[in-house]
Structures
1.
Amino acid sequence: MALSKEQIAKRIAKEVKDGYYVNLGIGIPTLVANFVREDINVEFQSENGVLGMGPFPFEGEEDPDLINAGKQTITTLPGASFFDSAMSFSMIRGQHVDLTILGAMEVSELGDIANWKIPGVMVKGMGGAMDLVASADNIIVAMMHTNKAGESKLLKKCTLPLTGVGCVKKVVTNLAVLEITKNGFQLLERAPGVSVEEIVDATEGNLIINGKIPEMVF
């Protein structure tokens, strides 16, 4: 069956390595901090000026002064630091972040990402997404495979305004784990109980299938 948002985040947490500095985007990516292995050291960075984020707080333990870029309350780990946006984006633009995990509305088979604007919907601006996709060497996208109408969000070409071009390395959806290659989406893993045929039907972009595709292990 298709993964929940928490399960998507749990699978992405396996991509986080010891010693990484990781930026978590708004939405599903913020859940990743809840699932990172306890035996590794990871520094989570939020673009509003926090380094050393921990898991979400338990109910009743929230501090309204501690928030992430999505205005959700967070916890901090020992040694955490706080700073202004200028320093935060110096970290990002200076390529001091090892992994960036973002949400997206669309991803193309060439690794283009659209995640900031739907035409006709008022938004305040692109925010930090442009800096993140322009500066990061390793970008993983967390998203649903299809929209509410059942239409694919993994496309041959994005239809929404782009945030970045050719920058996404891997996509984890509620159906599959896919790597971006020069020839399209390489299917690496499928969600437990989800068939390869279901993934094929839900993917508009070119899907590369080599051999038997294993189920995800969390």
2.
Amino acid sequence: MRDLTFIVLIKQVPDMDQVEFDYEEGRVDRSSAPLEPNPFDLNALEEAVKYKEELGGEVIAISMGPKQAESTLKDAIARGADEGILLQGREFAGSDTWATSLALGHAIEAVGDFDLIFSGEKTVDGDTGQVGPEVAEFLNIPHIAFVSGVKARKEDEVEVVSESWGATYVKSMELPGLITLTKDVNEPRLPSFKDKQKARKAKIANWGVEDIGIDQENLGITGSPTRVANMEVPPPEKRESMLLREDPGSAVNQLLEKLDLGRSK
């Protein structure tokens, strides 16, 4: 049995329940809330670790972000990844999904041979679902999106359940390839205290543009063909409650009046 290499794309995101938005700039204010691993990427990591546990090999977690994103990669190591790589530097800041995918694709090529790339179906701060498939296109490899179950793990092939367009499909794909995973695929494991302590000492490789062989003009705002034109956050839903203590007949009439259904026609 040959050694297998699995790549997990993982992003550090703000807690969306606490985050604030910069409406003028059309962006999420990441400094306004605690940072954590993207929840969907934890499902991707869990599946990669399961693949490793079943067939052997190594799991490499790759992220792009500021220096503080090292904590997310160390969390990935605590959960079963073998090493972490952070694409870090001013050149990467402001990249849209196209530029991000290009950078991640170059990083994966710099890693060398790989068998299967795992990505969450989307990130909670962007919600586009584009990066995983775009990375596969840049690498010219097959991909399957919205994977909700893995039926068979093999050295040269993976068989999965994919949910899309209101239907369920069973698909197989020859490796190397890429899959994006939903939260239904598994339950991410919690790292033990021992694993956390070990991961704290892990060395995270920091790579810049020179390490992945990419032109700077293809990154950041300059290399991003898309712009956020406007941002709107829907207001929270407000509900009004009432307690009816009258006899049933009166209560029904009050309820119909409240629902505007009791008017005579």
3.
Amino acid sequence: MSQTWDAALRARGYRVTPQRQLVLEAVTKLDHASPEEIFAEVHQKATGVNVSTIYRTLELLEQLGLVTHTHLGHGAPRYHLAAEAQHVHLVCRDCGRVTELAPDAAQPLVTALDEEHGFETDVGHLTVFGTCRDCRRTRPGPGATSA
């Protein structure tokens, strides 16, 4: 993957700097990470890198098509590799877990939106909020009383 990044940067006239490499490595490792989480990861290896460098690098890498962002609720955007961008996000409102699904899982919805409303869905930015299986299991059942 690193060679692909290097080639993509150089092909567009950009140098492969240690900061860019560290940001790409952090995005790969963390998956769906905020700029602050990426900063914390990079800062472990390069304490001289500041958060503004992270933001500028993410912006450049997104312009170059190497990373992309999505919004998984309120707060900062979350970044992941652009090569892995086409997926549906399931976000648990209780624990915050993000689960990725293949785009075809949403195909019935995508088809219905197109046929009924003429709406073309950007599945790469589709996020569904709800409650994950684990959190549903730990919820009190109907009629349960709290102590």
